């Protein structure tokens, strides 16, 4: 049998990338269990360091090879040996199963107190206070066996394993019991709280790795993971490069969160869990999560639904709850506006290019008097400013010059103060073409990768203006 070596490399857009072929002998079983038939794909955003990428890749590869080994063992009836991650993966699946078993039961708080006392009696049989000082004191073989027997009984682990069709070696079963002992305590505590009417979110579940579900028999696979669905969306719809650049990180993150799962297997709970994780990170506001991250994911999933790839959109209705809107710390205050507009009137250094000097001088004023976006102004051309037959001056914002909100052109009358400052005289001195960038210095496209498009010159000027404003 030929063995194909799996290596880590860079994709065209700079992302870390790798593939792992699924061997022929387990291909059918792998597709039934994990939704992938021919190959698994690893992808990590380009901002990760080589060390981070190699560590994540090694964990991913070990996980895939562990799945292949487990499927081969299951086919031959051989008892399984599991890796550290796989043990925690099964512990997470057991945790969900255990909680579900009692979800609808009306057992009183006292029933869970009784179960916990049984466990505690076994732990304290030799005076230990596990789990707090177990590493220091340890357990004798006899004491450890007694605790494991109680954990095995209370957890109903054998019933769970039988239902999952998992046959573990005795050594692996011992390790699994040790692994989920603390999880059993957390599960009993959770169910005790719920029996008492406390339904706050279960934070303990977050510690487990993301699991691949068993595919229901009536589910037709889409053949795309989240990132591949985004790629297909871009190829068909051809959104603006700015949209692609802004959305790309969303789908890399969502795909990593789901471990590359087929989009037909993404559930409503997955969508909510991903949203909750974005909130928990604390580096984005609710508005950014709702309007960029969730909106972009919902848009692509709706498109996939129209392509008959999925039956429902799990992102539908998912959003971050927000209170009354208040001005953010980043909003411009009157003193900030004065600082920016005053700085536009100051002389710039000799190393500042003529076009960027013009952008500093006029773009903030044009944005202030027209309400247009910065990018809609930095893309302006000389022919976009002309005089109306009735004498006043107008500015045309048009898709012919670049990206326009809603792709709808509009004409805006210019304020008299702009005329007084000499805007028209500036425009008359310029050559035909863009006012705020030199088209002759436009960078050549490095690649034809639609998922990582080269930024247009007016976008680069917009970004430079942002840096200039922050520098003030």
UniProtKB/TrEMBL annotation:
The protein's UniProt keywords, in alphabetical order, are: DNA integration, DNA recombination, DNA-binding
**Membrane-spanning residues where?**
none
Residues forming the Tyr recombinase domain are: 327-472
The yes or no answer to whether the keyword ATP-binding is present is no
InterPro entries membership? DNA_brk_join_enz (IPR011010), Integrase-like_cat_sf (IPR013762), Integrase_catalytic (IPR002104), Integrase_recombinase_N (IPR010998), Tyrosine_recombinase_XerCD (IPR050090)
Keyword Chloroplast in the entry? The reply is no
Q: Which family does it belong to?
A: Belongs to the 'phage' integrase family.
Q: What is this protein called?
A: Site-specific recombinase XerD
Originating organism: Aquamicrobium ahrensii
